[in-house]
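C-alpha coordinates please, single chain.
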Amino acid sequence: MTLERLNPGPRMSQAVRIGDIAFLAGQVPSDLTGDITAQTREVLDKVDAVMAELGGGKADIASVQVWLSDMADFPGMNAVWDAWVDPANPPARATCGVALARPGMRVEMIVVARAPV
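Here you go.
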Protein backbone atom coordinates (compact mmCIF):
# COMPACT_ATOMS: atom_id res chain seq x y z
CA MET A 1 0.00 0.00 0.00
CA THR A 2 1.39 3.38 -1.02
CA LEU A 3 1.66 6.39 1.27
CA GLU A 4 1.67 9.82 -0.46
CA ARG A 5 2.06 13.24 1.14
CA LEU A 6 0.22 16.22 -0.34
CA ASN A 7 2.13 19.51 -0.07
CA PRO A 8 4.58 18.40 2.62
CA GLY A 9 6.20 21.14 4.65
CA PRO A 10 8.79 21.20 7.41
CA ARG A 11 6.17 20.60 10.13
CA MET A 12 3.34 18.73 8.41
CA SER A 13 1.68 17.72 5.15
CA GLN A 14 -1.60 19.19 3.93
CA ALA A 15 -2.89 15.62 3.63
CA VAL A 16 -1.59 12.08 3.65
CA ARG A 17 -3.09 9.44 1.39
CA ILE A 18 -2.71 5.75 2.24
CA GLY A 19 -4.24 3.73 -0.56
CA ASP A 20 -7.55 5.44 -1.21
CA ILE A 21 -7.95 6.92 2.30
CA ALA A 22 -6.86 10.51 2.96
CA PHE A 23 -6.18 12.18 6.27
CA LEU A 24 -6.34 15.97 5.97
CA ALA A 25 -4.36 18.20 8.30
CA GLY A 26 -6.46 20.43 10.54
CA GLN A 27 -7.97 23.14 8.35
CA VAL A 28 -7.99 26.55 10.03
CA PRO A 29 -9.01 30.06 8.97
CA SER A 30 -6.35 32.49 7.80
CA ASP A 31 -8.47 35.54 8.67
CA LEU A 32 -8.88 35.48 12.45
CA THR A 33 -10.88 38.71 12.52
CA GLY A 34 -14.08 37.11 11.18
CA ASP A 35 -16.97 35.76 13.21
CA ILE A 36 -17.76 32.05 13.39
CA THR A 37 -19.72 32.07 10.12
CA ALA A 38 -16.88 33.71 8.17
CA GLN A 39 -14.25 31.43 9.71
CA THR A 40 -16.36 28.32 9.12
CA ARG A 41 -16.90 29.27 5.45
CA GLU A 42 -13.17 29.78 5.00
CA VAL A 43 -12.33 26.43 6.61
CA LEU A 44 -14.90 24.58 4.49
CA ASP A 45 -13.53 26.29 1.36
CA LYS A 46 -10.10 24.95 2.32
CA VAL A 47 -11.54 21.46 2.85
CA ASP A 48 -13.11 21.68 -0.63
CA ALA A 49 -9.77 22.77 -2.14
CA VAL A 50 -7.76 19.96 -0.54
CA MET A 51 -10.41 17.40 -1.51
CA ALA A 52 -10.32 18.65 -5.11
CA GLU A 53 -6.54 18.39 -5.15
CA LEU A 54 -6.91 14.78 -3.98
CA GLY A 55 -9.40 14.12 -6.78
CA GLY A 56 -12.46 13.93 -4.55
CA GLY A 57 -15.26 16.04 -3.18
CA LYS A 58 -17.78 16.37 -0.35
CA ALA A 59 -19.39 13.00 -1.10
CA ASP A 60 -16.02 11.33 -0.40
CA ILE A 61 -15.72 12.68 3.15
CA ALA A 62 -16.14 9.91 5.73
CA SER A 63 -15.74 11.84 8.97
CA VAL A 64 -15.05 15.32 10.29
CA GLN A 65 -13.88 16.46 13.70
CA VAL A 66 -14.96 20.04 14.38
CA TRP A 67 -13.10 21.90 17.09
CA LEU A 68 -14.59 25.14 18.41
CA SER A 69 -12.85 27.56 20.76
CA ASP A 70 -16.26 28.44 22.22
CA MET A 71 -19.22 26.04 22.18
CA ALA A 72 -21.50 29.09 22.03
CA ASP A 73 -20.42 29.18 18.35
CA PHE A 74 -22.05 25.79 17.71
CA PRO A 75 -25.27 27.22 16.15
CA GLY A 76 -23.34 29.62 13.89
CA MET A 77 -20.97 26.89 12.73
CA ASN A 78 -23.91 24.55 12.10
CA ALA A 79 -25.73 27.17 9.99
CA VAL A 80 -22.75 27.34 7.61
CA TRP A 81 -22.18 23.58 7.77
CA ASP A 82 -25.82 22.83 6.92
CA ALA A 83 -25.62 25.00 3.79
CA TRP A 84 -22.35 23.30 2.75
CA VAL A 85 -22.83 19.61 3.53
CA ASP A 86 -24.04 17.22 0.82
CA PRO A 87 -27.39 16.08 2.28
CA ALA A 88 -27.27 12.83 0.29
CA ASN A 89 -23.81 12.00 1.70
CA PRO A 90 -23.37 13.52 5.16
CA PRO A 91 -20.17 12.42 6.90
CA ALA A 92 -19.91 11.17 10.45
CA ARG A 93 -19.11 14.18 12.63
CA ALA A 94 -18.06 15.08 16.15
CA THR A 95 -17.80 18.57 17.63
CA CYS A 96 -15.99 19.61 20.78
CA GLY A 97 -14.83 22.73 22.56
CA VAL A 98 -11.05 23.15 22.83
CA ALA A 99 -8.35 25.78 23.23
CA LEU A 100 -7.17 26.39 19.66
CA ALA A 101 -3.62 27.28 18.60
CA ARG A 102 -3.92 31.03 18.03
CA PRO A 103 -5.93 33.85 19.61
CA GLY A 104 -8.94 34.70 17.46
CA MET A 105 -9.15 31.24 15.89
CA ARG A 106 -12.70 30.02 16.40
CA VAL A 107 -12.83 26.76 14.41
CA GLU A 108 -10.62 23.95 13.11
CA MET A 109 -11.73 20.89 11.16
CA ILE A 110 -9.99 17.56 10.63
CA VAL A 111 -11.19 15.33 7.80
CA VAL A 112 -10.81 11.66 6.87
CA ALA A 113 -11.96 10.88 3.35
CA ARG A 114 -11.84 8.54 0.41
CA ALA A 115 -9.39 9.88 -2.11
CA PRO A 116 -9.80 8.17 -5.46
CA VAL A 117 -6.47 6.99 -6.87
